[in-house]
């Protein structure tokens, strides 16, 4: 998928019109139409704003990655370990760990599993005290 296809997909998922998105970005509706159908791309600032709004990485938005964000990357990495997957599901929304999760985008699956195991060990130790 290219940028325009990804943008339309994300916009449709949030049930937004092109005008809704245009208003959010401070551009005209034809600009959004150009992004979606004519191969145009936003400037860096608007690209970052879109990625943050849709909670996806810029790489996903540009069609360079299929994993939407760090949380999806971690979920994929631990999917074959039931205990880690359940632990991840229970803690992925914790604000105190969000910065740590963002750092996982550059880690391979083995390192992500190790990171989650360490966090789980700390959690387990604290609950036993």
Structural class based on helices, strands and sheet pairing: mainly alpha
Strand content: under 5%
Q: How many β-strands, per DSSP?
A: 0
Count of helical stretches: 9
Query: According to CATH, what is the topology of the largest domain?
Result: 434 Repressor (Amino-terminal Domain)
Element-by-element helix/strand order: HHHHHHHHH
In total, the number of domains comes to: 2
- Going by CATH, the architecture of the largest domain would be Orthogonal Bundle
The CATH class of the largest domain is Mainly Alpha
Major pleated sheet: none
Identify low-pLDDT runs: none
End-to-end gap: 50 Å
Shape: elongated
Question: Considering the protein shown, what is the CATH homologous superfamily of the largest domain?
Answer: lambda repressor-like DNA-binding domains
Provide mean pLDDT, rounded. 84
Radius of gyration: 18 Å
Percent of residues in helices comes to 55-70%
